[in-house]
Amino acid sequence: MRELALHLLDIAHNSVSAGARNITITIIEDSQVDRLSMTVEDDGVGMDALTLQRVTDPFVTSRTTRSVGLGIPLLKAAAEACNGDLTIQSKPGVGTRIDVVFQRSHIDRMPLGNLAETILTLVVGCPEIHWVFRYQVDGETFEFDDAPIKEELKDIPLTEPAIIAYLRETLEKGVARVQQAGQS
Amino acid sequence: MDKVKSLEDLKRLREEALEKRRVKTASGEVQIVVGMGTVGIAAGARETLKAILDYIEKENLSGIVVRQTGNIGLDSFEPIVQVIKGDQPKVTYGRVHPDAARRIMKEHVVGGQIVKDYVIES
Lengths: 184, 122
Fold this sequence. Notes:
- By secondary structure, chain A is an alpha+beta fold.
- Chain A has helices at 4-17, 49-56, 71-80, 115-125, 147-153, 161-183; strands spanning 22-30, 35-42, 85-91, 95-103, 130-137, 140-145.
- In chain A, β5 (130-137) and β6 form a beta hairpin.
- Chain A starts with a helix and ends with a helix.
- In chain B, a hairpin with a 5-residue loop joins β3 (81-85) and β4.
- Chain B has a single domain, classed as Glutaredoxin (3-Layer(aba) Sandwich), CATH 3.40.30.
- The interface between A and B is large, with 37 and 36 residues.
């Protein structure tokens, strides 16, 4: 995977598989401290200490732990190669929080990629989950919470053409606004 | 349909969609499922889903539910897309890249003809 947004899609899916009802994604870029961080927090089933240990270890994670797979070890390796890290905190019955940090200016850091498309994919494809997405670049913030939209729509699927268009435009504009502010 | 710009607009849109549904309930709902496990994503499943959403938007197709699921268990065929029309049996397509996705939308979802070139089981 060549973009962080695709990795994000992958790790967010672990939260979906964990039976989460609420998933919050936070991405913060800070040029002052030269960091880029991605956080995914869920209220899914959580993991015990032994499972937690396995998830980040590529040599222990095998095909038998199919629900986790290679996604996390690969992302962890990518973060570590950029003076960063990947950490997971989890409690059975409470939920899981995964933090990935990169040195933002590191030459090997993957591009962020299409963040709006990743969020749109998650919101439309997993409508039973309450999604919150926060994106911040040097203090400028975009926040997207799908709860008010779903409340308005009730039983109408998010895949109605006009709603797809609305969601895409909201996400693309929000992401672009924050990125432009970060450049100036 | 006018462009949706605010939550107020969504309310209006909901009513329009309900109206439309009342008209076409007989034809049954269409469900499209895209496999989004690690392998699927690495194989390009996000672009496949994007192509499907773009098609729905462009052709203004109402009453289609698009869902995603984890690993379907057919790694070498990723990206995988399943189409379920009404009470017809589920059709599973493999190696569905955006061009194939648009073809499936046009020929199967809209036209009712299964696209045999990409079927892995049906």
